[in-house]
Amino acid sequence: MADMGQHSFGKFQPASPRDLPRELRQSRAIEELVIGEVIEINGSGSQVLIDSSRLEALTDDPDPSISMAGQVGSQVKIRLGNRWLLASVRTQRMHQREAGLIVAQIDFLGEGDEEKLTGKIYNFRRGVTRYPVPGTKIYAATSHDLKQVYASDGRANIEIGTVYPTNDTRGALYVDAMLGKHFALLGSTGTGKSTSAALILHRICDLAPEGHIVMIDPHGEYSAAFSTNGALYDVSNLAMPYWLMNFEEHCEVFVTSEGQDRQTDSDILARALLAARAKNRIAESISKLTVDSPVPYMLSDLLANIQDAMGKLDKSHSTAPYMRLKGKIEEIKADPRYAFMFSGMLVGDTMASFISKIFRLPSENKPISIIDVSGVPSDITSTVVAVLSRLVFDYAIWSRNEPQRPVLLVCEEAHRYIPASDVEKSVVRDVLSRIAKEGRKYGVSLGLITQRPSDLAEGVLSQCGTIISMRLNNERDQGYVKAAMPEGARGFLDSIPALRNRECIICGEGVAIPIRVSFDNLEEERRPASDDPSFSELWNQTGQEEEILERVIGRWRNQGR
């Protein structure tokens, strides 16, 4: 390695006098931002040599982008003719033989044109068409450069926060690109994930008040956040007709046996279900009625069909499968916890009105429906989510010849419904995996929110075109996310364990280039009810315990919230 004094970036002349021509002053100002040079080139990135004394000289610069130049996760630029290449610093290490020199790896992000008079970047685009050669100078990127890079290109977008390390550059998501190819919001518990999800959805609702968003809320957190601009549903007002279930979903609820017995029970249920659906007048107009057809039927008819089939058995056949099915159906029919779905009042043909209210058709300035499933009995929660998800997908398929109404389906705690383990067949896992793979063809967007991305089914995360990753404490989760993100974002990914609360890395289709963003503060009335309790404060309060217990036990016994 040559002596440091031989490097073109090693020494600088004093700043230009004020009476120099403007172009020369501008050129000298740009040259003062030189921090090193390229020493190695490969396809996606390069190695560069950085002068640590130059970095130290820039630390007091009022521009935060310049003052943090050269640090891991920061941006640098490389001049190539009349273009600027932008790159992100991935790693740093001291040079083995030359004191004061740092060897860094960089990932190329994109390129923009250079303004002749000012030397600033404009017309930035992703990707690199021409690479620099070893010896080319590298410069610190300024906040103005980053504003040009992150500036909207005219596409519909929502601003969600401030780009790191700037103070005023706004971070935006391109809505059509983000929703068109699905997105995932990841983050460990306590990182501000729920509030950030609410912020993104509020911004989308503000941008598109006639939109159609369905959110599955397993903890009842989001009702408070969308009380003014959303339609809120739980077990008290959901009224989801049981006959909307397809055959697989019926089996998941009514068939309790395993192995060969499960197949036997399923065959009996299929015959009884088809006969029950056929009794409805709507079935007369359907040329190809199947067990999956969403035609209303009465549970009493289903039970009667099973009873009739059992009565026709000869002595060589066992009645056990019929009794198992009858027992389970009668149990669910009589249990008030299941009334939101299996009530006798839900026999009428309410399919149009149910889809209308859940999908917000029309939205009536409340574009999001929050489906609070926290009060749903745990043994059928996954089935309820499966039915809602499948309805979104089926509606999109059967409405292809109509004016398009795209729907965004958001799943909180997604690892519950699309688990990596496939030991047991899961209807909800299958339908959400299918939406992840095929949904965008039909105008269905999927938003996955989870704290355990490594527990998601393999391939689902890679189907998400935009990944928004907050801090992840688990090393396995970090590795899983890194594998799903593009190569150019690797420099940002290394900082995932060090992110602050309500800070994230965004990469993919929804942004021009990978960015690190600090989320905006959300108004108090728009936040979800997800704050952690203050033990030190609440444990210093006392009184009214008897009244509290009485009210809680009343709700507990009545299964009411």
UniProtKB/TrEMBL annotation:
CDD domains listed in its UniProt record: TrwB_TraG_TraD_VirD4
Region listing for Disordered, in residue ranges: 1-21
Helicase HerA central domain mapped to chain residues: 158-392
Classification via InterPro entries: HerA-like, HerA_central, P-loop_NTPase
Pfam family name, one: DUF87
Protein name: DUF87 domain-containing protein
Source organism per UniProt: Alterisphingorhabdus coralli
Phylogenetic lineage: Bacteria, Pseudomonadati, Pseudomonadota, Alphaproteobacteria, Sphingomonadales
